[in-house]
Amino acid sequence: MRLAIISDLHIGYERFSDDALLQARKALEAAHAHADAVLIPGDIFDNRTPKPEVIASAMRLFREFSGMDWAAKPAEAEGTGARAPIVVIPGTHERRAQDTENPVSLLSIAGFVVDASNRRATLEKDGEKVSIYGIAGVSEERFGEILSKLNPEPEPGAFNILMFHQSLYELLPFSDTFLRMEMLPKGFDLYVCGHIHGRVEKKLHGSDFLIPGSTVLTQLKEGEQEGKGFYIYDTSSRSFTFEYIDSRKFVLIKEDASNRSAGEVRKEIEEKVKSIAAASGSKPIIRVEITGKPKDGSINLQPKRIAEELKETAIVEIGSRIDAEEIGKDADAEELRSGKLKDISIKDYGMRLFLENLRKRGYALPIKPSDLFEVLSQEGSSRDKAISDAIALLYSSYPDASESQGSYP
C-alpha cells in the first residue's frame, strides 16, 4: 500500500490563509494521484476554535476528496461512516480541554475522515491490512501518562504504524518534559509524527521514523527555506520518497549594517529582494534580518517603509537586532534573543512557563494543569471570561459541587 503522509496544514492560519488552503489542496491532489491512502498526524487547523468560514472551507476540501475513488478503504469494522482512507488525529493547535469536541472531530462526524485519536484505525487494500494507532496531540507533561494508559501494541498480521503529534527532545532539547524517542513502544513498522515543521527522517527501534513538516510557512526562520511537501511510503518495499508541492518560496536575507549608511543598506535590501522575486516567478516571502548598527543611526533604516515600497514585488518582513543589547536581561528574554526557542511554538512555550510556575507554587488541585491552561488561553475570550471559565472548571471538580446552590467563590 502506498501511503501519503501529510502534516500540519494549518488551515485558517491568518497570516497566509490563502496559501494554507491552496497548499493543503495541492498536497491532497498529489496524494490522490500517487497514493492509496492518506495519513495526517495533526494540525489540520491552525487553532482549536476556528471561525465558521475556516471550518466550512476545510469541510468543502475534505468532502471533495472523500468523494473520490481511492485504492484503499477504511475497514468496515471502524464504523465511522468515512468513505475515504484519510486517517487523521488532532494536533496541539486543535487541542482543547478534555471531553470537548475539537475541529478535527467535526470532520470525522461529517464522515470525511477517520479520526484515529487514541485508538486504532485500519485500512485495507487487496487483502493487505494497515493498522494505524493514533495518539492525539496533548501537552508535553501528559504524553507519558497517556502513552502508558493506552499502551499501544502492534496488531498481528498487519503493517503497523504509530502516529502521534508531539515535541521530541532529540529534535527540540528545550525541556525535560519533552518526549524521548526511546519511550515510544517497540514493534511498529513505521513511526509518523507531526508538530515539527521541518522534515525529519530517522530510524527508531529498527523502523523508519518520519516527520513530513508543514505544508504552509508559519514561522519565518532559516530552517523553513526548504520547499514544502509530503512523504509517500510504500509498505511493501518499506521505502519512501518526499514529494514537493508548488508552494510559495521563502528566503531569509541576513544584512550586516555595521559602519554603513542607512541609505546604502536600504538600497542593497531592495536590490536583493527584487532579484529574488525575479528568480522566483511569483511573489516570494522574504525576511530580512539586520545586524549591526549603521553609522547614521538605526532609525533612518525605516524598515516598515521598505516593506511597504516592495509589497508588489514580495511579501517582506524586516527584523532588526540593532538594539538587542537594550532588551532586559531576564531569563525569558535571553532565551528568545539567543534563539533557543526558534523551533518551539509560542503556545508550547507559554504552557511550559505556566507549568513551571504552578510547580513552584505547589499546585495540588484536582484539575490537570494542561486543562486549566487550555481554558485560560482560549482564543476569542476576554480576560474576565477566561478567569470565570477557569473558576467554573476548578469548582466543578469538587464532589459537592452539584449540591451547591450558590455562585462560584
Structure write-up:
This protein is α/β, with parallel strands linked by helices and 409 residues long. The protein starts with a strand and ends in a 13-residue tail after the last helix. α5 links the parallel β14 (250-256) and β15 (285-291). The chain is globular, with a radius of gyration of 23 Å. Mean pLDDT is 82; it is low at 322-342 and 395-409. The protein has ten helices and 16 strands. It folds into three domains: 2-244, Metallo-dependent phosphatases (Purple Acid Phosphatase, chain A, domain 2, 4-Layer Sandwich); 250-326, no CATH class; 345-403, no CATH class. It has a seven-stranded mixed β-sheet, with helices on one face.
| CATH topology description of the largest domain | Purple Acid Phosphatase, chain A, domain 2
Question: CATH superfamily of the largest domain, please?
Answer: Metallo-dependent phosphatases
CATH architecture of the largest domain: 4-Layer Sandwich
**Any idea what the shape is?**
globular
- Residue-averaged pLDDT, rounded? 82
Series of H and E elements: EHEHEEHEEEHEEEEEEEHEHEHHHH
Q: Number of helical segments?
A: 10
Structural class: alpha/beta
Domain tally: 3
Spans of at least 5 consecutive residues with low confidence: 322-342, 395-409
The amount of helix comes to: 25-40%
Report the span from N to C terminus.
Answer: 57 Å
Task: Characterize the biggest β-sheet.
Answer: 7 strands, mixed
Count the strands? 16
Structural Rg: 23 Å
What is the beta-strand fraction? 15-25%
The spatial strand order of the largest sheet comes to 3-6-7-8-9-11-10
